[in-house]
Amino acid sequence: MAGSMKHLVQVEPAKEAADGAPSAGPTYRCAAGGLGAAPPAVPGLECCWDIFRLSVEKSPDNNMLGRREIVDGKAGKYTWMTYKEVYDTVIKIGAAIRSCGVGKGGRCGIYGANCPEWVISMQACNAHGIYCVPLYDTLGAGAIEFVLCHAEVQIAFVEEKKIAEVLKTFPGSTKFLKTIVSFGKVNPEHKEKVEENGLSIYSWEDFIKLGGEEQFELPLKEKDDICTIMYTSGTTGDPKGVLITNKSIITIVSAVDEFLRNSNEQDVKLLVEDIGELKPTVFCAVPRVLDRIYGGLQDKVSGGGFLKKTLFNVAYKYKQGNMMKGSKHEEAAAVFDKLVFTKVKRGLGGRVRLILSGAAPLSRHVEEYLRVVTCSHVLQGYGLTETCAGSFVSLPNNMSMLGTVGPPVPYVEARLESVPEMGYDALSSECPRGEICIRGDTLFSGYYKREDLTKEVLVDGWFHTGDIGEWQPDGSMKIIDRKKNIFKLSQGEYVAVENLENIFGQTPCVDSIWVYGNSFESSLVAVVNPNKQGLERWAESNGVTGDFASICEDKKAKEFILGELTKTGKEKKASILRHNIYSEIMLPALTLTVHLDPVPFDMERDLITPTYKKKRPQLLKHYQSVIDDMYKSMK
Hints:
Helix 13 links the parallel strand 13 (354-357) and strand 14 (377-382). Helix content is 35%, strand content 21%. The strands form seven sheets. Strands 1, 2, 16, 17, 19, 20 and 21 form a seven-stranded antiparallel beta sheet that branches. The longest helix has 19 residues, at 306-324. By secondary structure, it is α/β, with parallel strands linked by helices. The chain is globular, with a radius of gyration of 26 Å. Keywords: ATP-binding, Fatty acid metabolism, Ligase, Lipid metabolism, Nucleotide-binding. Catalyzes the conversion of long-chain fatty acids to their active form acyl-CoAs for both synthesis of cellular lipids, and degradation via beta-oxidation. Its cofactor is Mg(2+).
């Protein structure tokens, strides 16, 4: 099969490993676009600053950064800064940073929600070769102080309402931190505490003036210079500082440009907050957002009356059938697009032509549904912080890639490495499976101050992702498991838990599910976040009363959810048998007891990462008493 994969070019053969080491499958590269290991050279493009500088030179009067003002509680129109206006402000901010004694190789933290000041601060860092260190309170308790100290941050730009959080890191962070700049104003109480600790604090407007008329020469910046230290949330332990170079970012930007040009896309604009006001052409979202859009559309169809529902379903089936036969989405049902599906597109602003999902797996049924009804390309991507985000992305008008993350993007090489202890063989001629390994200029340079962790994941130039993939016949990659997330039950059955969660997650009445198994027990337990609207509809039809939390406690509701999960498990049994670790895993291992939690897994309780990955140790700790009760009830 491996030799027949379209969309890919094999650049290295498979390698049998000696002495019991894992064997590796062939190395592949994207067939579309540039086949080189690096993008073609662009004159004057050596660093991230050059990307911005060249954009300003090309389109100085185009709008770049906008903010929607809130007046009397109501959102108004967007006000914009042009590329040239942003550039002029960046130069002033850069001069102010330099006047504080921070120069090339220095560390600048940025803490707050997305806003123009965030981007301007980052570009000022890029201009002067200063390491940009994003700060996320979603990394967990104590993470801000950890990152400030670990990265030795000297100056921090902070959203006004986040300043109090930074002050909580005193005095620990003051060993390195000397200057704080508010995105807005500074209140007297904060100013007093900052100055008591020997630091300086400025409002945004005051800081802009700090550099005065002094001209600071921009230092020479090279491709191999570090641009940013991006701390990953991870699921255990302290955050890891991922060192990303100018070369990595330039390469991934070039790869995206190459991909879009080969997908017949034109210039695209980044999505900003209000899609109704801005009418974006590209909609980037995490699966949770797309799941809610899908659920909302399902509810509208169900509540639209018999005729509208019938028309929608006929239109959907007709267009979906044509797309599965190979028709492009814009040609599959032009009449139904105008009569039925244009309303869906209008709900997304009316101009969306590309919806890109990333950060976590998107359910196949949601992806397929949105591909049909949104009248746009719906693509799923895969990457990690360590690979500069984008490494794989599915291709437009390829329904065979549903449920996959597509082939590698240009300038990235990928291969699978066998994981014998889990039964995954990268050299299988029928179904190559193994740990996804990535190579190329998009890779990070290592973990800051953690050479030990760097050596664990970077071996002979290959980054080991920890994710288990399966090459598909068309050259796309399907994520089927996580290398470490495996349970062995008391009767010796192995369970690839993420695969089960992906399968059970396709149950319509389930928003999210966490499955847990104990090697001293013979079955699994699960905590489920039910779909609120779906469960409330069921309750109304079955005489169960009370608010959503009360319904989740009802025994009949638990039996209903368990029945739906069991139904999904039986329907997907062939898939479970194909992708789980050993063929012995049958329905006994799918025996579940469930707990319904009306509160979704969230970052506030430290149960998920900012990219919505489950923090399994934290979930176990949080639900330990619930798990104990479920196992007791089974006995």
